[in-house]
Specification:
Blueprint: E1 2-9, E2 13-21, E3 28-34, E4 42-49, E5 58-61, E6 66-69, E7 74-76, E8 84-87, H1 88-100, H2 103-109, H3 111-127, E9 134-140, E10 146-147, E11 159-164, H4 168-173, H5 186-192, E12 197-202, E13 209-218, E14 224-231, E15 238-244, E16 252-259, E17 268-271, E18 275-279, E19 284-286, E20 294-297, H6 298-311, H7 323-340, E21 346-352, E22 358-359, E23 371-376, H8 380-386, H9 396-402
Antiparallel strand pairs: 1-2, 2-3, 4-9, 4-11, 5-8, 5-10, 6-7, 6-9, 12-13, 13-14, 14-15, 16-21, 16-23, 17-20, 17-22, 18-19, 18-21
Helix pairs in contact: 1-3, 2-3, 6-7
Length: 403
């Protein structure tokens, strides 16, 4: 008997839970599939497993995700396994079960291959002892996979999360139509600055048809940005997203604001997709790419952070919750509320390696005594995240002809 359930859970929106059980032999199997939209960017989780506690981290692996363990040169290609809600140890056990499935046949037809697979299974099983640290990589172009951070809302030093733009092959694998870029004449760009463009889309919450509005806006004392807003008439859900309308700046930007008064919450704020957020007093760090690009106020940004960490966290409620972790996240939410209401002083730091983020200066054009803006040279790692190290912008035509 197979049972199917279409349900909504925090963070993953709509999913399909599939549960199979055989009364004759007792075999059971549970799978999940994403029933929501494919995220705008892919995501890669790189976890350094150094203790047995790391084996208990909960993992959501979509069926289109690739699983790798570089130390064993082991890889599970996309679309070869169904999606699963498991742990790191559970992923290893699942891989072992898959390799053992056809071993009796291999031993009869090709003993040498069967012996090599048996040796490899032993190596996989030894990983569970964690005598030597190893790396688990989950690369999901759909952006719907997840690896638990047991230290949330603090940064997890063992877990590296990277969001990236999908290439045409990954779009094709997910069934998405590749977009073709067309050059827009300068006269057309001038027209775009004076009108609001509309195009049809689906609501990310209820999947009903909705309209997305797009507008080019010039922010005073800053630069031009593109604001995209979606309003669903069916369920009332609203979203807004901001894209930089200019090039990557030569230097990165670090903006530090000392929050001393509730009026600071009304400051306009532009957070680009390449901006990381820090609150030193709470030991909090939010990496680049998370929350996407936003044009809001400081209060709106802190409210979105609280909603992401506390409200939408899948591991704060239900069977996945732990009392200590849930209490820790609730305390974090209370401290954020105190900052928003002006009862707690704190610093907020916006670090944007592309230099495309902005925080309103209430004293403009004079300097703001509570805000510090620093320009800095990007590191090799910063340029790597922005895709600048391999970008060729000089002698392009000549090199293209030579090839």
């Amino acid at each position: 008997m197979t049972r199917l359930l279409l349900t909504k859970i925090p963070f993953f929106k709509e999913i399909i839970v599939s549960s199979f059980a055989c009364e004759n032999c007792g075999w059971v199997n549970n799978e999940i599939q994403s029933a929501g939209k494919i995220q705008e960017e892919g995501v890669q989780y790189k976890l350094l497993v150094s203790s047995k506690e790391d084996l208990n981290r909960e993992v959501v692996k979509a069926d289109c995700a690739t699983t790798k363990i570089p130390e064993l040169d082991f890889e599970i290609p996309p679309l070869t396994q169904k999606g699963a809600l498991s742990t790191v140890e559970g992923l290893i056990d699942r891989a072992v079960a898959g390799l053992e499935q056809d071993q009796p046949t291999r031993k009869a037809t090709d003993p040498e291959v069967a012996l090599k697979i048996e040796e490899f299974i032993e190596k996989l099983m030894k990983l569970k002892d964690v005598k030597v640290p190893f790396t688990l990589i989950i690369d999901d172009p759909s952006g719907n996979s997840f690896v638990e951070n047991p230290y949330a809302p603090q940064k997890d030093e063992a877990l590296l999360i990277t969001q990236y733009k999908r290439d045409s092959a990954q779009d094709s694998m997910l069934g998405l139509q590749a977009c073709t870029e067309e050059e827009t004449p300068q006269s057309s760009m001038d027209d775009l600055r004076n009108e609001v463009l509309q195009f049809g889309t689906n609501c990310p919450e209820c999947n009903a048809p909705a309209e997305t509005n797009m507008k080019l806006v010039q922010i005073p004392h800053f630069k031009e940005v593109i604001i995209m807003a979606t309003n669903c008439e069916a369920c009332g859900h609203r979203t807004n997203e901001v894209k930089s309308g200019g090039a990557t700046e030569p230097l990165g930007t670090k903006i530090t604001l000392r929050i001393t008064d509730p009026s600071d919450m009304s400051r306009d704020l532009l957070k680009s997709e390449t901006c990381a957020i820090f609150i030193p007093e709470l030991e909090f760090e939010l990496g680049m790419g998370i929350l996407g690009g936003k044009f809001t106020t400081l209060e709106g940004l802190l409210t979105d952070v609280k909603e992401l960490i506390v409200v939408k966290n899948p591991f704060i409620a239900g069977d996945s919750s732990a009392p200590e972790r849930s209490e820790k996240l609730r305390e974090f939410g209370q401290k954020l509320n105190e900052i928003i209401s002006g009862k707690r002083e704190a610093h907020i730091i916006l670090r944007d390696s592309a230099g495309n983020s902005y925080l309103q200066n209430l004293y403009a054009p004079d300097p703001d005594p509570e805000m510090k803006i620093e320009k800095y040279e990007r590191t090799f790692e910063d340029n790597e995240e922005l895709g600048l190290n391999d970008m060729n912008t000089e002698d392009y035509k000549e090199q293209k002809v030579d090839k």
